[in-house]
Amino acid sequence: MSITVYDLCGADEGLRFSPTCWRTKLALSHKKLAFDAVATPFTKIKEVVSGEAKTVPTIVDGGEQINDSFKIALYLDEKYPDAPSLFGGEQGVAAAQFVQNWTNSQLGPLIASLVIKDIHDVLAEPDQKYFRESREKMIGKTLEEVQAGREDRVENFRTALAPLRMTVGAQNFIGGDSPVYADYIVFGTVKWLMQIAQFEVLAGDDPVKAWFERIDAMYSGV
Amino acid sequence: MSITVYDLCGADEGLRFSPTCWRTKLALSHKKLAFDAVATPFTKIKEVVSGEAKTVPTIVDGGEQINDSFKIALYLDEKYPDAPSLFGGEQGVAAAQFVQNWTNSQLGPLIASLVIKDIHDVLAEPDQKYFRESREKMIGKTLEEVQAGREDRVENFRTALAPLRMTVGAQNFIGGDSPVYADYIVFGTVKWLMQIAQFEVLAGDDPVKAWFERIDAMYSGV
Question: Do A101 and B180 make contact, defined as CB atoms within 8 angstroms?
């Protein structure tokens, strides 16, 4: 039976831009598991996800619901040990945790400062209202204020990618010869920016761009 | 037979402050291998290390010389597979590479900007001359200029540790329940700063400080 993934969408249901949902979809693909990615706008999440956590990605596999992209990846490696491994064991889990912490703390806020208003603009109207209110309350500024002057910050984003650039300049993936869950963590976050940004995110000769395109091509059907 | 490690020293031969030599000494200790750490000033490296690479750490194990801390760690896991693993397999190697790239690109330059003149000051006179000339040529500024105004940059260093802080705030080590080579990579670099700095590097309640002290206590005999 196919696994269900509740997958964040924009006003256009075909636009699936959530960084963490990308991580989950690539993790499922890596494990060669069939899944249905169900378009889920922000304001419908509470209708499809049960329990305390009201976020996507959430997957339903058989009768079981798992929430949170990292927990989903752990679940998949445990539940489907014969399928290609996402972590390659305990040390891989620990390392992926570090990569996720790096991605979320060093790239996440910079990306928000580049496109937070643009994200708002691709949402359906009720989701726009929710997104603006929740984010402005969290940050203490309007979305327009956060995004203002972003031209000067594109270079900061590229600079922040230095550890990834050094890594994938010397080997094809963070995982070495083939991608692992740590690759999907960063990929999901860069993909999010790539889908929303109407400007050149990465220079043409950036090894990060080549890495991104390698993974994008591997999972072009997702 | 004991392994020899050529280990950078200051004017005081007991002062061993090189971040990469720390990585190697902790890797050897992790593998429970006996070693002699030979005090080696900058200007004596070329006398003890043969071949093209003229840097420390270099180890000599039996007749074999291995240069470069990362290559030494790989060598040790391969040569001594029955001793506790540093990487836990291929994914661990790939992940450690990422952690090293993060450490060297995000922490290394900040630390240099905090203590480069202080490093100079702990060296013996011929090493001071070599260090000043080579570093000033590389950077295009005097050591004094690089270090000036450092008070304002201690906070930048603490901020740059965010991904490590998130990781070791939630688990004891980057490696999870016990330290792995990725831990020693960052530890060596923080130890370097700790040994040289005459100011408070980490706040008392910083999880990074607790992590540092955990590893320092484990290897207090090194």
Answer: no
User: Which tokens belong to B17?
Assistant: 């402050």
B97 inside 8 A of chain A by CB: yes
Q: Which value, to the nearest 10 degrees, does the dihedral of the CA atoms of residues B176, B180, B181, B182 take?
A: 0
Mutate to test the interface with B, among A68, A71, A99, A101 (most CBs of B within 10 A): A101
- Name chain A contacts of B73, Cβ cutoff 8 Å: none
pLDDT of residue A202: 96
pLDDT averaged over 10-residue windows placed end to end, chain B, 222 residues: 95 97 98 97 94 91 96 98 92 91 96 97 98 96 96 94 97 93 98 95 96 96 84
Residues A178 and B116: beta-carbon distance below 8 Å: no
pLDDT, mean over chain B: 95
* CA distance readout (Å), B162 to A83, A124, B72, B207, B220: 34, 34, 28, 10, 26
- Is A17 within 8 Å of A192 (Cβ atoms)? yes
| Cis amide linkage into residue A57, ω under 30° from 0 | yes
pLDDT in tens, A107-139: 999 999 999 999 999 999 999 999 999 999 999
The B35-40 sheet, strands edge to edge: B35-40, B3-8, B58-61, B64-67
Over the stretch B156-190, which tens digit does the pLDDT of each residue have? 999 999 999 999 999 999 999 999 999 999 999 99
In this structure, the strands spanning B3-8 and B58-61 are: antiparallel
Q: What is the 3-state secondary structure (H, E, C) of B125-187?
A: HHHHHHHHHHHHHHHCCCHHHHHCCHHHHHHHHHHHCHHHHHHHHHCCECCECCCCHHHHHHH
Give A2-46 pLDDT, tens digit per residue. 999 999 999 999 999 999 999 999 999 999 999 999 999 999 999
Nearest-by-Cβ selection for A167 from B97, B175, B180: B97
Which value does ipTM take for this structure? Answer: 0.89
In angstroms, how far apart are the furthest CA atoms of chain B? Answer: 49
Q: Does B169 touch chain A (CB under 8 A)?
A: no
> Do the beta carbons of residue B49 and residue B6 sit within 8 Å?
yes
A174 in Cβ contact with A99 (< 8 Å):
yes
